[in-house]
Write a structure and sequence with these properties.
The chain has a domain of 173 residues: MetI-like (MetI-like fold). 76% of the residues lie in helices and 0% in strands. The chain is built from 12 helices and no strands.
Length: 271
């Protein structure tokens, strides 16, 4: 077998086979919901029944023809794009600063910036509600964007910092020694070199904002609902197969973003 070396002993072959079988079972368990959501999204029945007896695009037509669903998509896209821009700018700047050896209290600052990834999302949502409520930003798009930026910022910092760990700082010194101003050196030397990491961080920031539901539940009103909030409300109020169409669309978007992020990561490694 190609995945087993020729010099492997019998117990080693058996152990490798057991690991591969275990990994395959875990993957099947993780992707099993996909085989339920996607078929139900093209079912003609108004109830969740498997196997699907008759297929139809009616739920996708309902999704794209319903003003509430379209408005939620627009709200999600606007919030995600704004969050991506803000989180990418702040995260890249933070990673550049933390990459310097002389930066004071690097570990403490890094731990503080990564805390949104560790703290339970409900605590972040309650804290955001109380904080932005005092600023009058509840039920506003800026409040949602700022809260999502705080959630997405660690992903940008981690990806850009990982790229900077392989960046040759002599390139920056060479640009400065030739008389170029620091801003020009950053945009012409540093940024092109770390672009795969920056773009990957931006993709993760977009995905975090577009899929987030808990904080959005606390900070948005009916007219500011994002797509995940609209889906949650649909499940809570009345189960409608249109939710399956929305979930399939989100699934497709997530797969595309994952493929792009993986491709950028491999391209950065080759570079």
């Amino acid at each position: 077998m190609l995945w087993l070396p020729s010099y492997a002993t019998g117990p080693e072959r058996l152990g490798r086979l057991a690991v591969l079988v275990f990994v395959a079972l875990v993957l099947i368990f993780l992707i099993a919901p996909f085989f339920v959501v996607v078929p139900l999204s093209v079912s003609k029945e108004a109830f969740f029944t498997l196997p699907v007896k008759e297929y139809s695009w009616r739920w996708y037509q309902d999704f794209f023809g319903n003003e509430r669903w379209i408005a939620s998509v627009i709200n999600s896209v606007i919030a995600a794009v704004a969050t991506t821009i803000l989180a990418t700018m702040l995260g890249t700047a933070a990673a550049l600063g933390l990459a310097r050896p002389e930066f004071p209290y690097r570990r403490a600052v890094m731990s503080l910036m990564l805390s949104p990834m560790i703290v339970p999302i409900v605590i972040v949502a309650v804290g955001s509600y109380l904080f932005f409520g005092g600023l009058g930003l509840i039920n506003t798009r800026p409040g949602l964007v700022l809260s999502h930026t705080a959630l997405a910022l660690p992903f940008v910092v981690v990806t850009v910092a990982a790229t900077l760990s392989t960046y040759d700082t002599n390139l920056t010194r060479a640009g400065l020694s030739l008389g170029a101003p620091p801003v020009a050196v950053f945009f012409r030397v540093t940024l092109p070199a770390i672009a795969p990491g920056v773009i990957s961080g931006a993709i993760f920031a977009f995905a975090v904002s577009f899929d987030e539901v808990v904080v959005a539940l606390f900070l948005t009103s009916a007219e500011r609902r994002t797509l995940p909030v609209q889906m949650f409300s649909g499940i809570r109020d009345q189960i409608n197969p249109t939710i399956m169409a929305a979930a399939t669309i989100l699934l497709g978007l997530s797969i595309v973003l994952f493929i792009v992020a993986t491709w950028l990561g491999r391209r950065g490694q080759k570079a």
